[in-house]
Amino acid sequence: MSAIQAAWPSGTECIAKYNFHGTAEQDLPFCKGDVLTIVAVTKDPNWYKAKNKVGREGIIPANYVQKREGVKVGTKLSLMPNLGKAWIQTKLPAIEQPDLMGLFLVRESTNYPGDYTLCVSCDGKVEHYRIMYHASKLSIDEEVYFENLMQLVEHYTSDADGLCTRLIKPKVMEGTVAAQDEFFRMVDYLRSRGRSVLAGDSLLKFSLDVCEAMEYLEGNNFVHRDLAARNVLVSEDNVAKVSDFGLTKEASSTQDTGKLPVKWTAPEALREKKFSTKSDVWSFGILLWEIYSFGRVPYPRIPLKDVVPRVEKGYKMDAPDGCPPAVYEIMKNCWHLDAAVRPSFLQLREQLEHVRAHERHL
Predict the structure, then answer these.
(1) N or C: which end of the chain has fewer CB within 10 A?
(2) pLDDT tens, 250-264?
(3) CA distances (Å), origin 112, targets 92, 117, 131, 138
């Protein structure tokens, strides 16, 4: 058995590194960023039999895909589809304001490939801390270990715990909020362009971009908790990217509800602090309404104090003007009071792709 066959057993999930259109009937076409599952190896170790998220099977080239990993050191950051990685950078950036206490960023280590470096400004200079990757966990001091970078940053934001200072403000990478010539806040983008510029296919593409990013978080057991159009960026090439992970935690953790945006948060999260992927799904439904209303504030003409009581009695917003009925049905499915009945992000992506395929054939 070849090294490739041994490393890619049946059931392995992988991420597409490139587009593959296929040249034969038995090939399985896919796009960069798609998640595929290995079904079997073939006689030729350069090819696999795999299936996509909707169950279609076919042959794929082994060198076009990469094993899917969790959000941790060792995972190529480019494999996080449409996530705005504000404080993570892949190149060797600089902190131009070393006098700004607590300014920080995380970059890939140049001296220790596979590890990361935490750069922190402190007392007029920049301190560098190696983030070591051992036994699937991360550590700076080999005393406290974390499951992922998000946990690590959250810990040192609340307590310096041996660092020169606690982490206070992320150094935003070029191309995110700080560089408005390359990225735009989604709400501003929608409001400034409106119906005369953005056609239905653009709105559907933004919806799918966000859904794919959330499907990635769902697959790695993370809950965003603050999903809204204001936390989505749009790049110059019209790709929507989820950003602002200030409230992001593992699905099993709890959260103080005092900081949560009422109009975007699921009723069970506000009432019982029950957060899950399904509470993110509720927020995604609100975000869809924002997209198709071109940036309007949800629950228009309803006082904030009345929103939760009305929602808990079953109230759902009307469809935005011009919203396709199929998309509005998806919104309403996201707003089931019973969280268990709400679809997963995988199901939502499949539903949105079905809507897109239908519209293209009209």
Answers:
(1) C
(2) 454 455 545 678 999
(3) 13, 9, 10, 14
